[in-house]
């Protein structure tokens, strides 16, 4: 008996030392098996209890059980230590090192200017409308009172697409003249969306349409085959040129500062009567050595356009305008070459 009891303590010590020395979870599991698994040395010791006499058994059993509880506690403790160690980074963080800078992306300058323009119009109750860049001749020209033989078609030459492209923005009741496009093209202006919006809803209308447009132009410092416009359309009863001028002035002051001045010059567009070009000036324009800068076309919606979309021209009046976004961005940021907007050069884009 004495020999048996004497064996327990040193065995326990060895087991504890081995458990604590296990370098990882796998080694720990293996050590556990070797000691208290079904074929472990401690388990074998417990099995020997049966060979002891009645008097010896209780004391020996108590001692073995106590040792086993101790081993299991040591096992659990070392396991959580190992698990924690495994979860920690291999190399400790050096908090004295300088931080790593994340480079944040930015909105393109044209997007920023567009958003500012939209924000200004929203303040006075305009909603944003959208339309397709692949248009048909009907919405781009015919419905805007610009028939096939009209000279304005030459000044807005564009890219024609030979096959008929499915009309993804169908406007109700538009099955008439050329609707759906005998010829598809890349839209030359956002004015086509005027037609789509008026055909899809009754008056009054108060919308702006920011979007990309296309012309068959050679790229130079002030031209690019694709650029951006914002169209505006306001239809209601008793709308006047004064409303138009006041609106344009408000938006440009929001955008470019309170020193902005606006001037209307008579012009011709087939979908407005009367028509004007809008000139603009402020300190920036003066700094460029100019008195005025032309920024937009506009006018009172032509009665023929109202007829075409099914609005009664005896009841409804309205104005429309379209201006180029690049022009405004170039002026605002002092950019002298339009092509910079499209080159995706981060050295340029980072500056805005
Ligand atoms: N669509 C014209 C252009 O691209 C601009 C324009 C002029 C739009 C008069 C209008 C307008 O809505 O009424 O040059």
Keywords summarizing the entry:
single chain; 352 residues; BirA Bifunctional Protein, domain 2; seven-stranded mixed sheet; three-stranded antiparallel sheet; 13 helices; binds 3,4-dihydroxyphenylalanine
Q: What's the layout of helices and strands?
A:
Blueprint: H1 2-21, H2 25-36, H3 41-48, H4 57-87, H5 109-123, E1 127-128, E2 134-136, H6 137-140, H7 152-155, E3 160-161, E4 184-186, H8 192-200, E5 205-214, E6 226-236, H9 241-256, E7 261-269, E8 272-281, H10 283-287, E9 293-301, H11 303-309, E10 317-324, H12 325-333, H13 346-349
The structure holds 3,4-dihydroxyphenylalanine.
3,4-dihydroxyphenylalanine (DAH) is lined by residues 189, 191, 231, 269, 271-272, 297-299, 320-322.
Residue share in β-strands: 15-25%
Stretches with pLDDT under 50, minimum 5 residues = 173-181
Give the overall form: rod-shaped
Which class do the helix and strand fractions yield? alpha+beta
How far from one another are the termini? 89 Å
Q: Radius of gyration, Cα only, in angstroms?
A: 41 Å
Helix content: 40-55%
Bound molecules: 3,4-dihydroxyphenylalanine
Describe the structure.
Helix 1 runs parallel beside helix 4, helix 5 (109-123) packs across helix 9 and helix 5 (109-123) packs across helix 12 (325-333). The chain folds into two domains: 2-87; 109-131 and 194-349, 2-Layer Sandwich (BirA Bifunctional Protein, domain 2). The strands form two sheets. A seven-stranded mixed β-sheet has the order 1-5-6-10-9-8-7, sandwiched between helices. A three-stranded antiparallel β-sheet has the order 2-4-3. The relative contact order is 0.10. With 352 residues, the protein is α+β, with helices and mostly antiparallel strands. A hairpin with a 2-residue loop joins strand 7 and strand 8. The radius of gyration is 41 Å and the shape is rod-shaped. It is 41% helix and 19% strand. Bound molecules: 3,4-dihydroxyphenylalanine. 3,4-dihydroxyphenylalanine is lined by residues 189, 191, 231, 269, 271-272, 297-299, 320-322. The site of 3,4-dihydroxyphenylalanine (DAH) has 12 residues, from strand 9 and strand 10.
